[in-house]
Write a structure and sequence with these properties.
Layout: H1 2-38
Length: 39
Amino acid sequence: MAQDALNVHVFIVSVPIVQTIQTAAKMKAVSVLKALEVA
């Protein structure tokens, strides 16, 4: 049971981190595309 609680805790903590990384990656991709359009 303690293991399940730990897994849930890790999941709850990791989800926002993953979303933040994905958002940063999208913003990076958008900025690269805009730079290419300008060039």
